[in-house]
Design brief:
Layout lengths: L1 E7 L2 E6 L23 H15 L6 E3 L8 E3 L14 E4 L5 E6 L3 E7 L4 E7 L1 H6 L1 H10 L9 E4 L12 H10 L4 E3 L5 E3 L1 H11 L21 H4 L5 E7 L16
Parallel strand pairs: 3-6, 4-5
Antiparallel strand pairs: 1-2, 2-12, 5-8, 6-12, 7-8, 7-9, 10-11
Bound molecules: zinc ion.
Zinc ion (ZN) binds next to loops.
Length: 257
């Protein structure tokens, strides 16, 4: 269920794998995406299961309506009423509020400045990389007082450069924006390495290098891959800051539940 869970100075970074949920094939088992054709009840149950396993209140998880853009939203709580806005990055300074990003080959980027008490999550696929969603999320965190030099990052499971074949012209377009994303598949054909591009953008922003470990979704049977399966589920990456130890709300004027 939970593939990885790191804690850095009270900031939590977690990513899921595809096992341990209630979704049926082809979404089996822990599909967390609500817009991929799966039974909404199964997705709701899976989101509750994953949140409880992580020690989170399922109602305190912020999900985005991701559109491969670069817009970032500052949030102070779950969206109220209706659908989530169309953004590919969210940031918050609210402790205990988890930010979630959905992927199946795209790069989930999870960030936290534990000193400032600010976290961010971004969905960086090939279009988002080129559009600049990574600089956008770092900038939005900065608006809340985060410092790139203090920001810890985790890059979750995504398709690797050895697998992500694209037309030559597309490789050129991506490399023109982010040269480090230029790649070649193991078969020798043009490719894009989105994660390498994300890492390069983070480095240019002054963010310390994240750990190198990297699962390729397309090669891993434990992860969803859009490229491999087309109709498939979505993995989630979560980032949050530990809530105050006594569970009390922070003194911000809002009523405690
Ligand atoms: Zn691969």
């Amino acid at each position: 269920m939970i593939g990885q869970h790191d804690i850095v100075s009270g900031a939590h970074f977690a990513t899921t794998d595809r096992w341990g949920g209630v979704s049926a094939a082809p979404y089996g088992e822990l599909n967390l995406g609500g817009a991929v054709g799966d039974d909404p009840g199964a997705v709701r149950t899976n989101r509750e299961l994953a949140a409880r396993t992580l020690g989170l209140d399922p109602a305190a998880v912020v999900w985005m309506n991701q559109v491969h853009g670069r817009d970032a939203a500052v949030v102070t709580g779950p969206w109220r009423g209706g659908d989530a806005p169309c953004v590919d990055a969210v940031v918050t300074a609210r402790r205990g509020l988890a930010l979630a990003v959905l992927t199946a080959d795209c790069v989930p980027v999870l960030l936290a400045d534990p000193v400032a008490g600010v976290v961010g999550a971004a969905h960086a696929g090939r279009p988002g990389l080129v559009a600049g969603v990574v600089p956008a999320v770092v900038e939005a965190m900065g608006s809340l007082g985060a410092d790139p030099a203090r920001t810890a990052v985790r890059i979750g499971p995504s398709v690797c450069g050895g697998c992500y074949e694209v037309p030559e012209r597309m490789r050129e377009e991506v490399a023109a924006a982010v040269p480090e994303a230029y790649a070649t598949t193991r078969r020798g054909t043009p490719a894009v390495d989105v994660a390498a591009g994300v890492r390069a953008q983070l480095a240019r922003l002054g963010v310390p290098e994240p750990p190198a470990r990297q699962v390729c979704t397309m090669e891993s049977p434990d992860h969803y891959s859009y490229r491999r399966e087309r109709t498939t589920g979505r993995l989630a990456g979560y980032v949050w800051l530990e809530a105050p130890a006594d569970g009390a709300e922070e003194a911000d004027g809002e009523a405690a539940a």
